[in-house]
Amino acid sequence: MSQPGIQISDLSVEFAGGDADPVTAVSGVSQEIDAHRFVSIVGPSGCGKSTLLNVVAGLQQPTAGSIMIDGKPVTGPDRRIGLVFQEDSTLPWKTTTDNVAFGMRILGVAKRDQQRRAQEMIDLVGLQGFEQSYPAMLSGGMRQRVALARTLAQQPSVLLMDEPFAALDQQTRILLGAEVRRIWRQTKQTVLFVTHDLSEAILMSQQVWVMSYRPGRIIDVIDVDLPDDRDASVVSTPAFNELQNRIWSTLQQEAMRGFVAESTAA
Ligand SMILES: Nc1ncnc2c1ncn2[C@@H]1O[C@H](COP(=O)(O)OP(=O)(O)OP(=O)(O)O)[C@@H](O)[C@H]1O
């Protein structure tokens, strides 16, 4: 029987607008992700994807509604939750091993276990041989692997990722996307992944949620019925294209609505 992973109940987030009108970034979202499943959110720019993720992460308080993880409420930052963001979060003065161990040190993991687990995660993300390298000696994609290894080393049950590959070129994004999927098949965290990129969402996920332009609601939920052991080559298959067209037909209307609203407001 499936277990609850992330439960989002009737969630709304409104930002006070100062002199301007308040902004409703997220409105009445209720969705569930069973434990160990991988879900992506796509939506037009500014629709509230990051806001939704930040609330799930406990970094932003909702105006209404609630979040449960593994059946227990989220009330603030929480060690059950691992985060990977777009920004390079590696510490430039630390080696790969020390960067990966850093989060465990903060959590008070015993030093011996830190070293062992750091090496396991370095192997998992494919950075063997770069243990003593500093971030400046690594590519952008490798630095994101370090960030992922650090987060995974903290053994969260839920992994939240907000456009982690946005700063990378398209080829690296696709390859790293396939890599993250391979890693997830081993670690089996419950994953919520935010991206603008449809290909990335389909390549990686078991389900894709499409968010509307503001106020952000989930307007479509698509199951990704592609082989479980797929790799980056799946992007050139007819089944992949069909899914892409199906999602794009919904997303296109929302992107256009956003474009018109932003142009009118400018
Ligand atoms: N702290 C804040 N204060 C006021 N408004 C905010 C705040 N954070 C986000 N917003 C507004 O809420 C809306 C949703 O923002 P959010 O960053 O969640 O969208 P997004 O879908 O992640 O955007 P993008 O795809 O461009 O990253 C936007 O209009 C944004 O300006």
TrEMBL record:
Entries under Pfam families matching the protein: ABC_tran
PROSITE patterns: ABC_TRANSPORTER_1, ABC_TRANSPORTER_2
Keywords: ATP-binding, Nucleotide-binding, Transport
Protein name (Swiss-Prot/TrEMBL): NitT/TauT family transport system ATP-binding protein
InterPro entries: AAA+_ATPase, ABC_transporter-like_ATP-bd, ABC_transporter-like_CS, ABC_transporter_ATP-bind, P-loop_NTPase
Source superkingdom: Bacteria
Keyword Transport: yes
Sequence ranges assigned to domain ABC transporter in this UniProt record: 6-238
Keyword Membrane recorded: no
GO MF annotation terms: ATP binding; ATP hydrolysis activity
PANTHER family named in the record: ALIPHATIC SULFONATES IMPORT ATP-BINDING PROTEIN SSUB (PTHR42788:SF13), TAURINE IMPORT ATP-BINDING PROTEIN-RELATED (PTHR42788)
